[in-house]
Amino acid sequence: MKRLFYALVALLALAACTPDNPDGPGSGGGQGGNNNGYKPTGPITVKGVVYGGGSKALEGVVISDGLLCVQTDKNGRFELDSDLSRTTFITVSIPSGYTAPVNENGLPVFFHRVTDAERAANMVSHSFDLYPITNNAERYTLIVGADPQPRAKSASSDRNAYHSLDMCEDLYRDMRESASSIKDRNVYGLMLGDIVHENMSLYTNYVAGVKSLGFPMFNVLGNHDNDPKAADDSAGRHVFEQHFGPTYYSFNIGKQHYIVLDNLVMKKNASGELKEYDQGLTDEIWTWLQNDLRYVDRSTTLMVAAHSPMFMQENMSERSATTSNHRSDYAALLSKYATVHAWAGHSHTTFNYVYPESHTLKNIEVHTVARATGDLWTNEYVAKGTPRGYTIVEVDGDKITWKFKPTIYQTSGFTGKTSPQPDYKYRDWNYDDNGVAKLKSSGETLSDSYQMKVYKPGEYHKSFTDLQDGKAADSKYVYVDVFLWDDKWQTPKYNGVTMSKVGYKDAYSLASYEIKHFYWSNGYTLKGKDDYAPEDDNLHTLFRAYESKSSGTGTVSVTDRFGNTYSSTIAW
Fold first, then answer.
1. Element (H, E) at 118
2. Are the C-beta atoms of 131 and 53 separated by less than 8 Å?
3. Which residue positions in the chain have pLDDT lower than 70?
4. How many angstroms separate the CA atoms of 418 and 359, rounded?
5. How many CA atoms, within 13 angstroms, populate the side-chain half-sphere of residue 341?
6. Full DSSP string of 40-56
7. For the chain, N or C: smaller number of CB within 10 Å?
8. Cα–Cα distance, 304 to 341 (Å, whole number)
């Protein structure tokens, strides 16, 4: 019945978008008092005012009950005929030029949690107080991470090398120091889900980490963030909601409209645990998304964040309309906007993809972010080729740039059962006595100038299959993995000569292979499975160049899409 209700609401919402109603989805209404087809059909159950600093009422701010959306009038007032029996939150889509208050943990409070008393009275009366940004609101930094995914130190899956909780602490410290070094703009955070790993008690650890950052963190619900003991998808997210509020919502920073989506529908596995899932959006979230975008001009850049990739994946398979609920719907809607950056985690790998000009989704760019705390079960320094770290996005008006930021800390000791540890032959740094990464080549501290890993002749194999089959390494080629590369970067050059891109079906991460092969060779298993066995990583960032000399030096350089050039010199 609930799905039928949402389907009927969706049909009514779409009916409002007709040739006779030019203010349909994304038509660019966005002005106070123009509610783009929304008209109450029942008694008003939600009302209030939005203030922007003191008693100043804000016009044109979007308010939602998770399904319906309405704008405030010239007096800052809003009204909704919400079904309070199904409404958990009333949210304000933070308008550009304003911030939401933060709670005692530094988390943004852009929502009101509907109480049992309000349901009984069938009335919510709530006002939102926002704060004006006093500096340049259109110039800011966004720190993006994914899948910290800590487990208890006592967990069998967390005693193989480094504890995930320790790696999280190092991550938070690095993020905190990055943010504190930025003095001329506001800083925000976006964590792309799997902020815990099915252990609901560890939310408090994450919240404590976020509290220390010094900037507001917006959070995405991941599959592992659901309570595995819960009955269904709706119940599964209850702990996330207790700490962070709704699992889908929108807000505005500068000229960008941000949309956070819950795009995994949880279901029980054969053991009765809520650990399996379907891809896509529920009918409720799809209806809300349409209603939210009714107030967003199509010239606006959208920043869409979900846990699981919503479009092209690293194996070059497109999310299918048959396996991802409402895939065709949300793709068609988002394709109408000038520019869409689709952010996700989940796959633990870096994958940036730009649709070609001939594609119907040519306005969409895919940003899949690797696991911030390294290899999944060992928490070693690299996750499918990308070192532990995160992405720093710089925004100045309509200009958006980004780069990789490696985490420089590893302050905890090795806790694994093997002796010795891996050789780390392909790691370009060692950790000093304070747990700070120092480059082997120069002794300098690892920094955001480290955007690629270069491999000497004779280290890489031509393909993962050749490596597995025990064939000789590629002794005549230099290889480089450029972590955030996409088709808008220049192709890397070796000694001034353009390198060749290695096809993703042949490409793999040699650094990841070293780690996985080491633990696999030492008999590490997880729940009786061969989880540590090396695997093909489907890298889209690997290049090679011919080198005839048996010894010498060479330099790889690459220029990113924003004009920044990075270089690395090797000797063999």
1. helix 116-121
2. yes
3. 1-34, 37, 526-532
4. 50
5. 19
6. --S---EEEEEEESTT-
7. N
8. 6
Give pLDDT, residue 168.
98
Hey, what are 368's tokens?
């899949």
Helix spans in 438-536 (H): 464-468, 510-521
Give ∠ CA 297-132-394 in degrees, rounded to 5.
65
Strand order in the sheet with 62-64: 69-71, 62-64, 89-93, 111-113
Residue pair 536/508 in contact (Cβ under 8 Å)? The answer is yes
Q: Which two tokens stand for residue 35?
A: 């509610």
What radius of gyration, in Å, describes the C-alpha atoms of the chain? 25
CB 72 within 8 A of CB 50: yes
CA neighbor of 314 nearest in space, from 224, 385, 375: 385
Cβ-proximal residues to 496 (8 Å cutoff; 6+ apart), any chain: none
How far apart CA 305 and CA 218 sit, in angstroms, is: 10
Tokens of 199: 């252990």
Question: Crossing angle, helix 327-334 and helix 283-293, to 10 degrees?
Answer: 10
Query: Strand, helix or coil at 14?
Result: helix
3-class DSSP state of 386: strand
Tell me how long the chain is: 572
Question: CA dist 400 to 79, 255, 337, 367, 397, Å?
Answer: 36, 11, 16, 13, 8
β-bridge mates for residue 570, sequence order: 554
Helix axes 283-293, 2-15, angle to 10 degrees: 20
CATH class of 2-390: alpha beta
Q: What is the pLDDT of residue 254?
A: 98
Other residues' Cβ atoms within 10 Å of the Cβ of residue 565:
11
C-alpha 158/C-alpha 156 separation (Å) is 5
Tokens 């996409």 -> residue? 486
| Paired tokens of 64 | 């939602």
Per the structure block, which two tokens stand in for 530? 């061969």
Task: For 501-522, give one letter per residue: b (16+ CB within 10 A) or e.
Answer: bbebebbbbbbbbbbbebbbee
**Which helix (H) or strand (E) element contains residue 383?**
strand 382-383
Question: Using an 8 Å Cβ cutoff, are 214 and 104 in contact?
Answer: no
Residue where the block lists tokens 């979007």: 62
Give φ, ψ of 288 to 5 degrees. Answer: -60, -45
Measured CA to CA, the distance from residue 93 to residue 260 in angstroms comes to 11
Q: Residue ranges per domain, the chain?
A: 2-390, 418-571
CA neighbours closer than 13 Å in the CB half-sphere of residue 37: 25
CA dihedral (542, 341, 407, 526) positive or negative: negative
- Whose tokens are 């994914």? That residue is 146
Residue 393 buriedness (CB in 10 A; 0-12 / 13-18 / 19+): buried
Closest CA to 391 of 362, 411, 365, 417: 365
Q: Angle at the Cα of 222 (from 220 to 228), degrees rounded to 5? A: 135
